[in-house]
Amino acid sequence: MPRRKPATRPPMSERELGANLEDACKKLGWRYYHTFSSQHSVAGFPDYVLVRDERLIFGELKREGKDLTDAQGEWLADLFLCGDVECYIWRPSDWDSGAILKVLEEP
Question: What is the pTM of this model?
């Protein structure tokens, strides 16, 4: 009898990554903002703004292998220069490895 190939999970989409991030924010006490539709927003502004206590995080979500646009890179660079601001580029592999949760669980 022929063996079946094990079912492989399709790669996590940016939308699924965002849903996972939002669920984690709710569980860990983060307030978050995500623009529903970026059509009328300034190009390149990060996907998520997260706030908890004295921490402020800007997060850009990207699919694996997808690079930042110039506008996204400029926004993140300018925000990073502000000082006590954390800026991240998060991909599905960062969720799978636990790296995103590690950041969110920090005090």
Answer: 0.88
Buried b (16+ CB within 10 A) or exposed e, 20-39: bbeebbeeeebebebeeeee
Strands 48-52 and 55-61: antiparallel
What tens digit of pLDDT does each residue of 39-87 get? Answer: 888 999 999 999 999 999 999 999 999 999 999 999 999 999 999 999 9
Integer Cα distance of 74 and 68 in angstroms: 9
Domains of the chain: 14-35+44-105 (3.40.1350.10)
Alpha-helical regions (H) of 29-69:
none
